[in-house]
């Protein structure tokens, strides 16, 4: 298995804990950052815009994706223009549909033609990839985020989907395909193999990067030691009764 530095795919950190994001910004392997309202709520972010602006201030040299909060087309477009004005390195996340399932394509088209750098998010089907691709402006950079991890959660292999998505987008030179919601480090190599340009990783997964190519015998021994150490620390005991049968030779 190749080292991370040998891969073409870019690693983005996905999160909303400010100190964690700041820590990962010092790692040269991390090429960008994404977040969303759910992650921000879990991280107890109170002021959405203040958080975003502070993050832009401390990470001015790599792309940062922030999502609109609105649900109707006019408000989505107004918020997208506002978010885009926060910094030159900002991508505006627009969900592929609104909450009642209406395709956001007309807004995507208007925003892309206005030069807004988009990150179209929450895609799970190839039909959605095709519809979004048709709305983008070839001269404006964009990211299409396909939630491969959620596809896998349904029992469906995401690799064929992601490979076909990459083929659909290969003629759009300014559009990058993002493997979203990964579940394990293996997904990095799968995303690379599928032709994705970016994969987002939560800090917990980024913390496992140093396990790549780890010796499995050594990993096995570490696991055995972990179980033994935790059993001792917990003070667990098993009572040996006299009537227990002895092992035969």
What does this entry look like structurally?
Strands 1-2-3-4-5-6-7-8 form an eight-stranded parallel barrel, surrounded by six helices. The radius of gyration is 22 Å and the shape is elongated. Helix 4 links the parallel strand 3 and strand 4. The chain has 249 residues and is an alpha/beta fold. Helix content is 42%, strand content 16%. The longest helix has 19 residues. The model has no long low-confidence stretch (mean pLDDT 96). The two termini are 44 Å apart. It has a single domain, classed as Alpha-Beta Barrel (TIM Barrel).
Set out the fold topology:
Blueprint: E1 10-14, H1 18-24, E2 30-34, H2 37-42, H3 48-58, E3 64-67, H4 73-84, E4 90-95, H5 105-113, E5 118-123, H6 126-135, E6 142-146, H7 148-153, H8 158-169, E7 175-179, H9 186-194, E8 198-201, H10 203-206, H11 216-234
Parallel strand pairs: 1-2, 1-8, 2-3, 3-4, 4-5, 5-6, 6-7, 7-8
Helix pairs in contact: 4-5, 6-8, 8-9
Sum up the structure in keywords.
single chain, 8 strands, 42% helix, elongated, 249 residues, TIM Barrel, eight-stranded parallel β-barrel, alpha/beta
Concise summary:
The protein has helices at 18-24, 37-42, 48-58, 73-84, 105-113, 126-135, 148-153, 158-169, 186-194, 203-206, 216-234; strands at residues 10-14, 30-34, 64-67, 90-95, 118-123, 142-146, 175-179, 198-201.
CATH architecture: Alpha-Beta Barrel
Helix/strand structural class: alpha/beta
| Rg for CA atoms | 22 Å
Label the overall shape: elongated
Number of strands: 8
The fourth-level CATH homologous superfamily is: Aldolase class I
């Amino acid at each position: 298995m190749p080292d991370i530095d040998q891969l073409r795919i870019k690693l983005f950190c996905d999160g909303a804990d400010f100190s964690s994001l700041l820590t990962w910004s010092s790692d040269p392997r991390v090429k960008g950052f994404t977040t969303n309202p759910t992650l921000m709520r879990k991280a107890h972010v109170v002021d959405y815009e203040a958080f975003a602006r502070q993050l832009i201030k401390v990470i001015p040299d790599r792309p940062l994706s922030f999502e609109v909060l609105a649900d109707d087309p006019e408000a989505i477009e107004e918020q997208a223009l506002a978010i885009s004005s926060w910094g030159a390195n900002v991508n505006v996340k627009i969900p592929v549909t609104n909450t009642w399932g209406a395709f956001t394509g007309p807004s995507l088209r208007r925003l892309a033609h206005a030069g807004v750098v988009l990150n179209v998010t929450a895609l799970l089907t190839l039909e959605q990839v095709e519809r979004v691709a048709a709305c983008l402006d070839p001269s404006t950079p964009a990211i299409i985020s396909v939630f491969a991890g959620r596809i896998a959660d349904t029992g469906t292999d995401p690799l064929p989907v992601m490979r076909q998505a990459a083929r659909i987008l290969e003629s759009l030179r300014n559009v990058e395909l993002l493997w979203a919601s990964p579940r394990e480090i293996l997904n990095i190599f799968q995303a690379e193999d599928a032709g994705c340009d970016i994969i987002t990783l939560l800090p917990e997964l980024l913390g496992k990067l140093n396990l790549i190519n780890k010796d499995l015998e050594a990993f096995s021994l570490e696991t055995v030691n972990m179980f033994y150490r935790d059993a001792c620390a917990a003070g667990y005991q098993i009572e040996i009764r006299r009537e227990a049968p002895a092992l035969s030779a």
